[in-house]
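Suppose a colleague, Dr. K., hands you the sequence of a protein chain of 426 amino acids and asks what its three-dimensional shape might be. Before reaching for any lab equipment, you can write down a predicted structure in token form. Begin with the sequence itself:
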Amino acid sequence: MIRLFNRFTLACITTLLAATSHATTWVKADALLDVVSGKLINNPIVEIDGDKFVAVHTSPPTPAEEDEWVDLSGMTLLPGLMDMHVHITGSHAEHGYRRLQATSGHAAILGTVNLNTTLQAGFTTIRNLGAPDYIDIDLAKAVDEGLIPGPRMFASGPSLGITGGHCDNNLLPKALNVPADGVADGPWAVRTKVRENIKYGAKVIKFCATGGVLSKGTKVGVQQYTLEEMQALVDEAHRRGLIVAAHAHGTEGIKAAIEAGVDSVEHASFLDAEAIKMAKKRGTYFSMDIYVTEFILSEGEAAGILPESLEKERQTGQRQRKSFSDAVAAGVKMVFGTDAAVYPHGDNAKQFARMVRFGMTELQAIQAATINAATLLKMQDQLGSVASGKQADLIAVAGNPLENISLLEQVGFVMKDGTIYKQPEQ
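The predicted structure, expressed as tokens, is then:
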């Protein structure tokens, strides 16, 4: 019996050693951008153990024979990028009434393709703000389980909204009577819907505080949920430990959402000085999709966007860009959010150049998509920068993005959780 026990113990020890001893990965490049300090580290060698960063070396280490070397000479390293507003199950070519043809299966297939496209573009973390039938939550699980490649995803499930509001389905006649999954009216109804989304796996709650550009029959600047409803919704989500994102274009809806305690305001198009002051005082993040107007006005009609939506965009786009400049100048907290799916997935990084054009420095724009986004998600100890113990999410571009932010549109190397998904072309 003792001999059997000893053999069993020896087998366990051997298995444990095999599981814990594995090769280290070393990534060498010309430079590494420290997104916290804003400084470039020359000739870094990043040490990675499994799915975690270990250290950044500036002198050559002594690797073991079995270790893996990745030589990215001529390139600059950055932490994986983070987009805080995408719709991964949607397509830029399916707007307006074309959306009625999309089944849940079709949306899941689109999502699978879009996840890989987004990862290849250098985005290793995304926040998905709205999807029917909890499809985004299923996709997030599939990524986590290694079934499909993609960024880690903080998924909301169905967006909450009032009857007939921006988050409802307004394209069908009364005879068909098919409301959107997230429709809820009144404080107790919105609490119930928050609980339902959490029940099915939501990691963030998204709701519509105002009308929107792409919804039929809504006025883009008009507040929809009341302050009482918003407060109930935010309270329910925060008690369960989830952050809350509010779609809000109009001034009064933005202010009500901030007063209700939301963590981020999406779009934030029609800001005034009071709204900016409120956001800065409360630490509310703005996620402003200032690139997408170019796609809507140039390609939207061909993609099926309704004439009324095109007109609303003409009234909104430039005003949103002014609001962005004003918020940046005032020092409001900002994260990178694109509304990808309104325009093509994979083109997310095109927004960086617009953020710089309308008031940010290159570093501020990169911080919005790295450490700021991680902090909004309350994941700053795990994501957002290249530091010991954090998840090994790493990208590389050919050149210095602090001198040319558009380099982020051509990411040549992508690593997520220590696994390489894209290598530079030889």
